[in-house]
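Hey, can you fold this one?
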Amino acid sequence: MKGRDAAAKHSYRDAADSFREAVTLDPEFADGFNELGTVEAELGDLAHSVDDFQKAVDLEPDHPYALPNLSIVLARLRRFHEAGLVARRALKVAPRACKIHFILAVSLMDENGDAGEVIDHLERATDEVPKAHLVVADLLVRLERPQDAIRHLEAYLQVTTPDDPYRSTVQARLAELNQ
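Sure. Predicted structure:
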């Protein structure tokens, strides 16, 4: 609880110290390793957070938080192949995790994976990851499916704010596709 309280106050170093103490006292505490990985990621220590998420997964192979967290951090480290493998496992535990669908799609794109599968995962991600609309639109244009691309660009504009930094670029792209 000390670790969670410190994390809630954004005292991530104190939180990390508390979680390290917890996992030292109980090296089988999967949730403690997950929490430690989370605060280490907040501190920018992605390499250690990967190790801690992996320890949590080793202790509890279907850990509902450690698997998604591990895939996110691996993607942040641009270790897309590993991120994709973990994302597939995470989606078995949490099939509606939009951010994990996005990570799997990006991982597949990095490896020139099946375009249909990439599109499917990107479309599943759009509810929580608006940028997925932009990525899938680009792919749909390359696949010569401009009407589907237009639909995604319009959806992006509907869910973003007027001051969105990509708004003018998306509007220009829409005008180009509608010609």
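The longest helix spans residues 12-25. Let me know if you want another pass with a different chain boundary.
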